[in-house]
Please model this.
Amino acid sequence: MKEFEDTLNTAVFTTKFVVKDKKEITYVTHDADDGAWQFFSSDDFDNYEDVAMILSLDEIINIDRTVLEIADLPLGYFATRQTSKDSWTINKMTNENAL
Model:
């Protein structure tokens, strides 16, 4: 299994849908500008600040160990899948597909 280069106490961004509603992580970004990791479910939201949560990388791994499959996701890329049983699809971030 892969490991993240970032330390397990690295702060990562997610949503209340992933943490409180236990929704599957289906969209992950590794931001080029600051190296931040973001872990999302497929839920729509109008205002990120209303649903945002900050966890440690270790906490996200404990929520969904399959994120280790993309621990080597390069800066400036994102990964998507339909469900946790599906394989990740990796793509480079562009202005068109950025959040």
